[in-house]
Write a structure and sequence with these properties.
Layout (H helix, E strand, L loop, with lengths): L1 H26 L1 E5 L2 E6 L2 E8 L5 H10 L18 E11 L2 E11 L5 E8 L5 H12 L15 E4 L2 E4 L5 E4 L2 E4 L3 E8 L2 H17 L4 E12 L2 E11 L6 H6 L3 E11 L2 E10 L11 H4 L2 E3 L1
Antiparallel strand pairs: 1-2, 2-3, 3-6, 4-5, 5-6, 7-8, 9-10, 10-11, 11-15, 12-13, 12-16, 13-14, 14-15
Length: 296
């Protein structure tokens, strides 16, 4: 009887583990560029890079320089991971209550090479999630389906394919920019509260930037992917600001929408923006934004 119960318990744990992974993969999106992989999930940007160096003090020197790992940063072995590794946490204070946290995992992979996996966000690091994700990378368990092509003519936007044409480009993972058509970045979250907190933090970080100033802030009713919701709208003024980007574009203001809502049984945080000299349709939005939202 004990043997039967033990076997049943093993199968239950394996089934639960598979369900948890499938849930993670449903929120995960990735792109690969010259061997480096970039992921986005829950407002976290994840990067994976591999060196042919061995896992040793000598092999770590070059990656440490690249990632600006200073000697005074404490590197520890995460004993919850069943392979050679070092864990390092870097935290940069942006303002009171806002920190940019980056966790680095330097691991010896199955080829005995050195792989670095980093997790960067404004949230407190989730060690359990990070460990499980590092294990997925170590075991080669990330499905190909979560990867999107580097050259894009369409995007997978929370389960819906949106055609874009050939002029758009990735600015980072889940951050697409189309010249004169607008820009949007998004992340899929496990909970709506996490999506809302992520947006609130990004808004606060935007307010701290010295490249311009906010001249208008309001809350507006919108239809986002078929769902009626509210968005924070700001107008960012660059008048009098000396910037190469602003000078080349001839723009004076940028309009930004911050949206957190449920879309197709997923919770999403999304930031959408456009310049005052973009191709703005009668709807009041440029084509990229118009593809996912409507003003009421």
């Amino acid at each position: 009887m004990k043997i039967i119960i033990t076997i049943a318990g093993i199968f239950f744990n394996l089934s639960l583990f598979a369900q948890n992974n499938n849930e993670v993969f449903s929120r995960l999106q990735a792109v690969s560029n010259n061997g480096t992989e970039f992921y986005n999930i829950d407002g976290i940007e994840i990067t994976k890079e591999t060196y042919t160096n061995d896992f040793s003090d000598e092999g770590l020197k070059k990656p440490f320089r690249k990632y600006s790992i200073k000697k005074d940063l404490v590197k520890i072995k995460d004993t919850a991971l069943p392979f050679n590794n070092y864990y390092i946490l870097k935290s940069e204070t942006i303002s009171s209550g806002i920190n940019q946290n980056t966790s680095y995992y330097f691991i010896e992979d199955t080829k005995k090479w050195l792989t670095i996996v980093s997790f960067s966000s404004f949230k407190k690091p989730d060690k359990l999630f990070e460990r499980e994700f590092v294990k997925l990378i170590y075991n080669g368990s990330i499905p190909k389906e979560v990867f999107t092509p580097l050259g894009i003519d369409s995007i997978n936007f929370i389960g819906r394919k949106i055609p874009l044409g050939k002029s758009c480009r990735w600015m980072s993972i889940n951050n697409v920019q189309c010249p004169y058509y607008g820009q949007m970045s998004w992340s899929v979250h496990k909970e709506l509260s996490d999506a809302q907190n992520t947006l609130n933090t990004h808004f606060e970080v935007t307010k701290l930037k010295k490249a311009g100033k906010i001249i208008s802030e309001s809350e507006v009713e919108i239809i986002f992917e078929g769902t009626q919701t509210k968005a924070k709208k700001i107008i960012y003024d660059f008048t009098g600001i000396k910037s190469l980007m602003v000078g080349m574009s001839g723009s004076k203001t940028m309009t930004i929408y911050y949206v957190a809502t449920e879309v197709r049984n997923h919770f999403v945080s999304c930031t959408l923006s456009f310049w005052d000299n973009d191709n703005i349709n009668p709807s009041g939005l440029p084509p990229l934004l118009e593809a996912v939202m409507k003003l009421k």
